[in-house]
């Protein structure tokens, strides 16, 4: 038994797991402390005990961005260990926010930071698990995508298992749309009986945030104020939606290897060509429209199920202009924010990775082959002992 009276090994007893997530938006590290329990019926019950976010400072963000575009072996080596320390800091912070002691935590689960994702060939996440284990003295489950990729899968999205086990509707098909740096959707059957498919829809907030940083000198468009004041240039959106990725059938995944600085430069070049008099607000509004219309486009192409609602989570769900644009793009589907049904939607991905770690401890598969295209179910992650 742990110090909290939580069982360390027996199925059917609660475990406390900390999930750590650093996403493509590069805002910082999201950390969630979660209790999981398998009920007699086989259903998984969970409780969010604490959630916090540790923002990257400008130097940390620059190092991560630079590593995605270029870097030496020495730089990657140092960044891997430094990120391990940042992740350990976030773990300690959320444990304190949950009024727990580290000894009460059964495992820490770290997604790390994706530097490159080229599925189904390979995927690479930084954030040294040994550093986290040494700092926290807790077991660490990490490197969660590689086993699925090794089995021929995309290694993404990995949140569908949480959408299936934790967030389904008892009565109707539900589309769970995450709006991190990249957007992804899970198509979940009533009662959580199955996932029809799940895939990355394209950009979430990565293009929006990039143009806001470049043109307005802000980390993001707080409350969607800039976008709300602008008018989108639809000819630019039309051209960008012609990209090959949007015509690929699921399973599929993407990231900054496609929606990178070069993509943003092309976006801005099209804006200058098609709308030379457009202001910053118009550029941001066009980036918002790109995300919204890409989601609507992917739903119409690849989701034949008669879903009743779209549930939005992630940082983009805090942007009213983006939420409104998505509602227009997916009409007549009802759009609701994750916060209205569960808890802070920005915690969802960290909770999902905590769940993957819990499944690892329970020796249960964490991937959904219908989402990733893997040749079968696999236990995800590698365990670094305390």
Do you know the CATH architecture of the largest domain? 2-Layer Sandwich
Q: Ranges with pLDDT <50 over ≥5 residues?
A: 1-11
CATH class of the largest domain: Alpha Beta
Mean pLDDT value: 93
Task: Describe the structure concisely.
The chain has 386 residues and is an alpha/beta fold. Helices cover 40% and strands 22% of the residues. It contains 15 helices and 12 strands.
Describe the structure.
There is one protein chain. With 386 residues, the protein is of the alpha/beta class. It folds into two domains: 15-156 and 347-384, ATPase, nucleotide binding domain (Nucleotidyltransferase, domain 5, 2-Layer Sandwich), CATH 3.30.420.40; 168-341, Nucleotidyltransferase, domain 5, CATH 3.30.420. It has helices at residues 58-69, 73-97, 129-136, 146-150, 160-166, 206-216, 225-228, 234-240, 244-247, 261-274, 280-302, 320-330, 338-341, 348-361, 369-372; strands spanning 15-22, 28-38, 44-55, 107-118, 122-126, 140-142, 174-179, 182-188, 195-203, 309-313, 334-337, 382-384. Strands 1, 2, 3, 4, 5, 6 and 12 form a seven-stranded mixed beta sheet that branches. A five-stranded mixed beta sheet has the order 9-8-7-10-11, sandwiched between helices. A hairpin with a 5-residue loop joins strand 2 (28-38) and strand 3. Helix 5 (160-166) packs across helix 14 and helix 8 packs across helix 11. The two termini are 16 Å apart. 51% of the residues are buried.
């Amino acid at each position: 038994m742990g110090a909290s009276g939580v069982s360390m090994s027996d199925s059917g007893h609660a475990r406390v797991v900390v999930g750590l997530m650093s996403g493509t938006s590069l805002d910082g590290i999201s950390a969630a402390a979660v209790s999981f329990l398998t009920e007699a019926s086989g259903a998984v019950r969970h409780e969010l005990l604490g959630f916090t976010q540790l923002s990257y400072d400008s130097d940390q963000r620059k190092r991560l961005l630079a590593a995605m575009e270029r870097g030496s072996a020495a730089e990657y080596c140092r960044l891997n260990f430094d990120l391990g320390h940042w992740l350990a800091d976030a773990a300690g912070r959320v444990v304190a926010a949950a009024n727990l002691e580290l000894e009460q935590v059964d495992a820490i689960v770290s997604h790390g930071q994706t530097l490159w994702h080229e599925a189904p060939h390979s995927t690479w996440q930084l954030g040294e698990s040994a550093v986290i284990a040494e700092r926290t003295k807790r077991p660490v489950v990490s490197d969660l995508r590689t086993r699925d990729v090794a089995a021929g899968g995309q290694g993404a999205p990995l949140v569908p298992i949480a959408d299936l086990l934790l967030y389904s509707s008892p009565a109707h098909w539900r589309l769970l749309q995450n709006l991190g740096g990249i957007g992804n959707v899970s198509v979940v059957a009533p009662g959580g009986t199955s996932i029809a498919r799940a895939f990355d829809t394209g950009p979430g907030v990565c293009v929006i945030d990039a143009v806001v940083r470049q043109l307005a000198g802000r980390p993001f468009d707080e409350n969607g104020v800039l976008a709300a004041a602008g008018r989108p240039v639809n000819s630019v959106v039309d051209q960008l939606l012609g990209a090959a990725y949007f015509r690929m059938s699921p399973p599929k995944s993407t990231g900054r290897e496609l929606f990178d600085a070069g993509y943003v430069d092309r976006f801005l070049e099209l804006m200058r060509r098609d709308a030379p008099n457009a202001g910053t607000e118009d550029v941001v509004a066009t980036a918002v429209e790109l995300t919204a219309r890409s989601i609507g486009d992917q739903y119409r192409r690849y989701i034949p199920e008669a879903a009743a609602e779209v549930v939005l989570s992630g940082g983009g769900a805090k942007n009213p202009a983006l939420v409104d644009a998505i509602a227009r793009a997916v009409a007549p589907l009802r759009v609701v924010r994750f916060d209205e049904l569960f808890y802070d939607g920005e915690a969802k991905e960290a909770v999902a990775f905590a769940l993957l770690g819990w499944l690892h401890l329970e020796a249960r598969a964490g991937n959904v082959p219908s989402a990733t295209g893997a040749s079968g179910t696999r236990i995800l992650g590698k365990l670094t002992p305390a």
